[in-house]
Every structure is written in structure tokens, then in C-alpha cells.
């Protein structure tokens, strides 16, 4: 799997007959997992090994796609390595501080409870909703460093 990631090989390549022939020829008796298995729990287990119990920071940012939907993407950085947490389509709800806070709280909960990361900080853009959300997030997590991204000022 690390070879595939390092060489930017897509997951579907493992289902190519030549891929299977190569591994059966050079590593007799090996079982080559399918793309769904490889991109499912095997990938999740590898991510867990790399981030569990380590310190990291989180960030989110909003933008509009070509259909003018409001999207909010979140990621964490653990020891200089970025991990995408998810993208939320928030266009059906009003663009409010409370909605942004709920998205960030869910991302923090996922990062800490599921991935086992010790989040020490969170960064967002400097929009009006984000600035107010910083205050609310600090009131909930007084130990967390919450900052605005200076690149978006």
C-alpha cells in the first residue's frame, strides 16, 4: 500500500490482471487485496497507526463549488502530515456561526474519538462567522489554541 501511495498508483490498479500476475510470480502464495478492501479498512488501519496518540492541529475553510453550493472542508495536521477529515455541503442551512461550530465540533470529536489524535489547536479563515465561532470554541475548549488564518485576511 505504501508503494501505491508513494508512486501515486490508483487503487483500481490492484484489480488489473498484470498486477496480480506480477505479485504471484515474484511473491508466490501472496493474497492481493481488492481495491475496496485496500481503500477500506486496510487504509483506515494504516491511518490509525500513524496518528493514534499523537498531537495535531485542525483547520477548516469554506468555499463555493461550481454549482454555488457552500462547502466546508476540514483537515488535521499530525507531525507535518495532512489528513483530510471531510467535506460538508452546508448550502441547505443558513450560513451561521452556530452551524459552523457544529461542523467543527463534529470534526474535533471524530479526530479525537475515532482517530485518537490529541488536538491542540484549530484554525479557520477570518470571516465574520469564523471569528465569532472562535470565541464559542474557546469557551467550550479553553485549553485549545484557536487562531485565524493570516493568509485569508
The biggest sheet, with number of strands, parallel, antiparallel or mixed sense and barrel status, is: 5 strands, mixed
**Unreliable stretches, pLDDT < 50, 5 or more residues?**
none
Along the chain, the helix and strand elements come as: HHHEEEHEHE
What distance lies between the first and last C-alpha atoms, to the nearest angstrom?
Answer: 39 Å
Computed Rg? 19 Å
Specify the overall morphology. Answer: elongated
The strand order across the widest sheet is 3-2-1-4-5
Total helical segments:
5
The overall pLDDT, averaged over residues, is 84
- The counted number of beta strands is 5
Oligomeric status:
single chain
Structural class: alpha/beta
Which strand-content bin applies to the residues? 25-35%
Q: Helix amount, in percent?
A: 40-55%
Outline of the structure:
With 153 residues, this protein is α/β, with parallel strands linked by helices. Helices cover 41% and strands 25% of the residues.
Write the layout of secondary structure elements.
Blueprint: H1 2-6, H2 17-26, H3 35-51, E1 55-64, E2 70-78, E3 81-89, H4 97-114, E4 118-124, H5 128-140, E5 145-148
Parallel strand pairs: 1-4, 4-5
Antiparallel strand pairs: 1-2, 2-3
Helix pairs in contact: 4-5
Amino acid at each position: 500500500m505504501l508503494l501505491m501511495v508513494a508512486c501515486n498508483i490508483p487503487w483500481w490498479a490492484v484489480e488489473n490482471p498484470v498486477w496480480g500476475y506480477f505479485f504471484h510470480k515474484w511473491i508466490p502464495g501472496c493474497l492481493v487485496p481488492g481495491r475496496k478492501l485496500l481503500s477500506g479498512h486496510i487504509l483506515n488501519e494504516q491511518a490509525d497507526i500513524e496518528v493514534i496518540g499523537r498531537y495535531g492541529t485542525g483547520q477548516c475553510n469554506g468555499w463555493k463549488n461550481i454549482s454555488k453550493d457552500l462547502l466546508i472542508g476540514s483537515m488535521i495536521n499530525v507531525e507535518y502530515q495532512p489528513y483530510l477529515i471531510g467535506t460538508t455541503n452546508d448550502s441547505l442551512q443558513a450560513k451561521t456561526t452556530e452551524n459552523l461550530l457544529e461542523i467543527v465540533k463534529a470534526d474535533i470529536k471524530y479526530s479525537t474519538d475515532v482517530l485518537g489524535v490529541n488536538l491542540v489547536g484549530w484554525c479557520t479563515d477570518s470571516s465574520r462567522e469564523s471569528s465569532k465561532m472562535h470565541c464559542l470554541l474557546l469557551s467550550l475548549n479553553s485549553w485549545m489554541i484557536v487562531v485565524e488564518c493570516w493568509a485569508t485576511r
